[in-house]
Amino acid sequence: MSASSLRYYGIGLENGNYTVKLQFAETAYTNPPPPKWDSTGRRIFDIYIQGDLKEKDFNIRKEAGGSSFMAVVKNYTVPVTNNFLEIHFFWAGKGTCCVPQQGYYGPAISAISVSPADFVSTVSNNEPSTSKSKTGLIVGIVVAVVISGLLVVLAVLVWRYKIKKRKIDEELLGIVDRPDMFSYAELKSATETFSASNILGEGGYGPVYKGILSDGRVVAVKQLAATSHQGKRQFVTEIATISAVQHKNLVKLYGCCIEGNTPLLVYEYLENRSLDQAIFGKSSLFLDWPARFEICIGVARGLAYLHEESEVKIIHRDIKASNILLDGDLNPKISDFGLAKLSDDKKSHMSTRVAGTIGYLAPEYAMRGHLTEKTDVFAFGVLALEVVAGRSNADSTLEPDQVYLLDWAWSLYEKKHALELVDPRITSFNEDQVIRLIGVSLLCTQASLGQRPSMSRAVMMLAGDIEVTEVTSRPSYLTDWQFKDLASNNFSTSEFSANKEAIGTAISYSSDALLDSIIQDGT
């Protein structure tokens, strides 16, 4: 059961048609009669399979003829074309949330069964043979004892070798799902001694190199710079965080290396590099409108997984165009979890050090260090506008009214000329999708946390499954200062032109009126 969203992933399936059998039973609400206050609740949610809406406003008890504790079975035939199956149960804001007490009254599922519908799988699903052989048992015991003895000797040797040569951090040894460990020599060979010709880019903590492992895999090796503020504890946290999550819109971590003083992370290699290179014209790759729209939905789904569906709730803290990578099919993948912060509802959300990128920082985080998942929601809104416009969020080379993307977007939106925001390089686009994406972006970048949607709700709005909530007024951080007043009162024209970007960022995050609105919002 969940309060808002549940996803089931089947990964590595053979392609073909599958029969998906879903079984439900209402257990939280009791049966009437007699009618009681705690039996009047309704559980209503939507069912998506492979992104297609299969059931709208599905009500388990209604499907069971009004009875609780009664099995409801649904069967669907769905295609698997990329060896991947996704089943999504989504609470769209209908039904009851707090009866008989506040809890998990969103989607619920009792059992899921997936089996080939019209083909025979090449992988056997039979149990191992249970036939018993006395001779085989004796041989098995003898072999097991011998192997166990050898393993004990080998383990002692390896342990002594590690004590002398490596001294791996105790913290790393405490991670349950530790990724593969690579040797420094192996990664040095894979990257041709970390050759400058193999540099893919410069991350927040150091360079990233392209490498080819001995098994033929092409990888991206992230090397932490000596000047990085990220210590071993943070490095181990990053490894544990990335290893704990699996999603098609998140970059996959193959392993790491902790030899010496230069820790290394080994990621999957994504041939189309980062999103900023594509949309800001730094590469030959051109993204048409369908590709850009799907990229925004993919990023939103990845964030929804991190915030609401992962085993641990994760706040990325540095969502921006350069941290979105594209694979060969232009599928977006969120990268760089070096700034990720695991959220613990029992602890304070006040961060001792604000980390992120100017232009994408939510005002309450930039100003007061108040960190929630709505920090990522704000950054996504800025990113989506950049994808629409094909430019960065601040560009001092443009006309004065276009320097700041959020300000310009609001001006066009208020004049009902929002379509003029679209990248002029795009000659054809779906107007309804553009309006939806801009509307969601403006909603995500509201000053008040309560007005920003959750990422799962943003996904539904982008997909057109629910209406985009209309925003009617600019956020306070855009209305509480005026560049013209600053220019005339404090700076010459030339001084203002040269410094307006820095001035705008500082003032937009230090407004007294903004602080008041944040306090009133309850944050």
TrEMBL record:
Membrane-spanning residues: 137-159
One Gene Ontology term, aspect cellular component: plasma membrane
Protein's UniProt name: non-specific serine/threonine protein kinase
Keyword list, A-Z: ATP-binding, Glycoprotein, Kinase, Membrane, Nucleotide-binding, Phosphoprotein, Receptor, Repeat, Serine/threonine-protein kinase, Signal, Transferase, Transmembrane, Transmembrane helix
Bilayer disposition of the protein: Single-pass membrane protein
EC number: 2.7.11.1
Matching PANTHER family: LEUCINE-RICH REPEAT-CONTAINING PROTEIN DDB_G0281931-RELATED, OS08G0203700 PROTEIN
Compartments where located: Membrane
Main location, first listed in the record: membrane
Any one GO molecular function term: ATP binding
